[in-house]
Amino acid sequence: MKGDGMAESTRAFAEQFDDPLQQKEAAQAGMWVFLVTEVLFFGALLTAYTVYRHLYPAAFREASRRTDLALGSINTAVLLTSSFTMALCVHAAKTGRRAALVALLALTMALGAGFLAIKGVEWAREIHEHLLPGPSFEFPSAYPGEAGRQAQLFFVLYFVMTGVHALHLVIGIVLLGVLAFFAALGRYRSDYYTPVEVAGLYWHFVDIVWIFLYPLLYLVGGPR
Q: Most CB within 10 Å of its CB: which of 64, 153, 164, 190?
């Protein structure tokens, strides 16, 4: 009985799987299927953006110039750094370094929270400048009428895409928080770190989405 208990406590995979490798492959396959559905979702938004940008190129260029390039660039650097720390998390889990794993997960969460804080400042400035689509939306008087309505389409897509991206980042931060809690308890070892690896796939996906959004939303207006 004691031997059975010890074997159960050191079991590195769920009982429905034959071995840890099978569990890892199943978890990775599940995450990839989920990410494919997310690609389709963001792909629809990017397609809508591409269509309207083709229809109203001048208005989209002018609208893009109203975004804060400095804050967008800083956030890009922050998120790319978080991708690096997330990769280090997976390596720490793989090599069984519990303290390093917890610290790196916390750092990655902090970088994600920093991104959201900067984005919040940016949104607040844009709302203050009446760039939030709706009755209060205003565009410079040099672009009145139809051009202003076309520019509003840009900001509809801007707030939807950055908002959905931010929501995914919040989910990622919560997920990393759960992983950090279990990592502190010693749940993950060099022979079992699948949840950290799968979470890494999700986090990198969120970062890649931003890599697409950044040039489309901040750089399409050209030099400022």
A: 64
